[in-house]
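ok so I'm stuck.
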Amino acid sequence: MESGPFSANRAGTLPAIDIVNMCYSGEYDKKTMYKKLVKEAGLISYMGTNDLRDVLKKLEENDAYARLIFNALVYQISKEIGAMTAAMKQSPDAILLTGGMAQSQIMVENIKQYVSFIAPVYVYPGSDEMKSLAEGTLRVLNEEESEKYIKAIKLTSDKVIFQED
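replied:
not stuck anymore, here's the structure
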């Protein structure tokens, strides 16, 4: 279980007492609880799908429940960005939105409405983050490329530049 907003299939932050009650109810074993919180939560538990595109279709049909869940997702993501800003004790240079959901213009625009006053928002849509991380690690292990240490991030008007040590 993690903190933060719910996602396509993860629960995100939940009330601890409810989780304790479920764990000790006798109805669930550890494997089942893990599955409920990490594999079958988030959009799946609310909408029966882990695909934001299905939720967006329901929004187009003026489905009030889909609107409620979509707004909750946007709100939770935005709230987490604000929380991380507070934890840093300073404004970030930029906010980066990544992942499959960042392919949705309506999702991005709704999040920007909440957080664009904090810093410029840059969008890098895609859904292959884990694959990219694994491939990069493999290249380092196979000595095809050296490890990189990111020391700072500089922004230009249209892109992010990572400075290496």
